[in-house]
Amino acid sequence: MNWTILIIAGFFEVGFATCLGKAKETTGQTSTFWLIGFFISLCISMILLYKATQTLPIGTAYAVWTGVGVVGTVLAGIILFNEPADFWRMFFLTTLIASIVGLKFVSH
Protein backbone atom coordinates (compact mmCIF):
# COMPACT_ATOMS: atom_id res chain seq x y z
CA MET A 1 0.00 0.00 0.00
CA ASN A 2 2.81 2.44 0.82
CA TRP A 3 4.35 1.92 -2.62
CA THR A 4 1.02 3.03 -4.11
CA ILE A 5 0.96 6.08 -1.83
CA LEU A 6 4.53 6.86 -2.87
CA ILE A 7 3.68 6.68 -6.59
CA ILE A 8 0.65 8.93 -6.06
CA ALA A 9 2.90 11.38 -4.18
CA GLY A 10 5.18 11.37 -7.23
CA PHE A 11 2.22 12.18 -9.48
CA PHE A 12 1.41 15.17 -7.28
CA GLU A 13 5.04 16.23 -7.64
CA VAL A 14 4.46 16.25 -11.39
CA GLY A 15 1.34 18.31 -10.69
CA PHE A 16 3.15 20.98 -8.74
CA ALA A 17 5.95 21.22 -11.29
CA THR A 18 3.45 21.50 -14.13
CA CYS A 19 1.43 24.14 -12.29
CA LEU A 20 4.62 26.11 -11.71
CA GLY A 21 5.43 25.97 -15.43
CA LYS A 22 1.91 27.07 -16.36
CA ALA A 23 2.00 29.91 -13.81
CA LYS A 24 5.19 31.15 -15.46
CA GLU A 25 3.46 31.26 -18.85
CA THR A 26 0.37 33.16 -17.69
CA THR A 27 -0.43 36.46 -16.02
CA GLY A 28 -3.03 37.89 -13.69
CA GLN A 29 -5.79 35.79 -12.23
CA THR A 30 -4.91 32.76 -14.38
CA SER A 31 -1.41 32.76 -12.92
CA THR A 32 -2.88 32.95 -9.42
CA PHE A 33 -5.02 29.86 -10.08
CA TRP A 34 -1.96 27.92 -11.28
CA LEU A 35 -0.05 28.99 -8.16
CA ILE A 36 -2.91 27.81 -5.96
CA GLY A 37 -2.78 24.47 -7.79
CA PHE A 38 0.98 24.43 -7.19
CA PHE A 39 0.59 24.87 -3.42
CA ILE A 40 -2.22 22.32 -3.15
CA SER A 41 -0.25 19.74 -5.15
CA LEU A 42 2.88 20.48 -3.13
CA CYS A 43 1.10 19.94 0.19
CA ILE A 44 -0.57 16.71 -0.94
CA SER A 45 2.70 15.38 -2.33
CA MET A 46 4.61 16.10 0.88
CA ILE A 47 1.93 14.58 3.11
CA LEU A 48 1.83 11.40 1.01
CA LEU A 49 5.64 11.22 0.94
CA TYR A 50 5.69 11.51 4.72
CA LYS A 51 3.07 8.76 5.02
CA ALA A 52 5.05 6.44 2.70
CA THR A 53 8.30 6.98 4.62
CA GLN A 54 6.74 5.69 7.80
CA THR A 55 7.32 2.13 6.55
CA LEU A 56 9.64 2.47 3.55
CA PRO A 57 13.35 3.36 3.84
CA ILE A 58 13.79 7.12 3.43
CA GLY A 59 16.54 6.80 0.82
CA THR A 60 14.48 4.51 -1.37
CA ALA A 61 11.26 6.46 -0.89
CA TYR A 62 12.89 9.77 -1.73
CA ALA A 63 14.65 8.36 -4.78
CA VAL A 64 11.43 6.83 -6.11
CA TRP A 65 9.41 9.98 -5.35
CA THR A 66 11.86 12.23 -7.19
CA GLY A 67 12.25 9.68 -9.99
CA VAL A 68 8.51 9.51 -10.61
CA GLY A 69 8.42 13.29 -10.47
CA VAL A 70 11.28 13.67 -12.94
CA VAL A 71 9.85 11.18 -15.43
CA GLY A 72 6.39 12.71 -15.23
CA THR A 73 7.66 16.27 -15.41
CA VAL A 74 9.83 15.54 -18.46
CA LEU A 75 6.83 13.93 -20.18
CA ALA A 76 4.61 16.87 -19.20
CA GLY A 77 7.26 19.23 -20.59
CA ILE A 78 7.29 17.36 -23.88
CA ILE A 79 3.49 17.22 -24.14
CA LEU A 80 2.49 20.58 -22.67
CA PHE A 81 5.50 22.84 -23.15
CA ASN A 82 6.86 21.60 -26.50
CA GLU A 83 10.20 20.56 -25.05
CA PRO A 84 12.42 18.38 -27.26
CA ALA A 85 12.01 14.59 -27.27
CA ASP A 86 15.28 13.56 -28.91
CA PHE A 87 16.92 10.13 -28.70
CA TRP A 88 19.30 10.83 -25.82
CA ARG A 89 16.63 12.46 -23.69
CA MET A 90 14.36 9.43 -24.13
CA PHE A 91 17.28 7.06 -23.58
CA PHE A 92 18.19 8.56 -20.22
CA LEU A 93 14.54 8.82 -19.23
CA THR A 94 14.22 5.09 -19.90
CA THR A 95 17.28 4.32 -17.78
CA LEU A 96 15.77 6.39 -14.98
CA ILE A 97 12.55 4.38 -15.14
CA ALA A 98 14.58 1.15 -15.04
CA SER A 99 16.41 2.45 -11.96
CA ILE A 100 13.13 3.23 -10.17
CA VAL A 101 11.81 -0.25 -10.90
CA GLY A 102 15.13 -1.72 -9.75
CA LEU A 103 14.90 0.11 -6.41
CA LYS A 104 11.44 -1.36 -5.89
CA PHE A 105 12.76 -4.88 -6.41
CA VAL A 106 15.78 -4.58 -4.11
CA SER A 107 13.93 -2.81 -1.25
CA HIS A 108 12.36 -4.79 1.57
How would you describe the shape?
A: flat
Cα radius of gyration in angstroms:
15 Å
In whole angstroms, the N-to-C terminal distance is: 13 Å
Percent of residues in beta strands: under 5%
Unreliable segments of 5+ consecutive residues: none
* Helix fraction by DSSP (H/I, runs of at least 4): over 70%
Number of strands: 0
Order of helices and strands: HHHH
Please indicate the count of domains: 1
Give the tags.
single chain; 108 residues; mainly alpha
Short description:
By secondary structure, the protein is an all-alpha fold.
Describe the 3D structure:
It contains four helices and no strands. It has helices spanning 2-25, 28-52, 58-80, 87-106. Helix 1 (2-25) runs antiparallel to helix 2 (28-52), helix 1 (2-25) packs parallel to helix 3 (58-80) and helix 3 (58-80) runs antiparallel to helix 4. The mean pLDDT is 94.
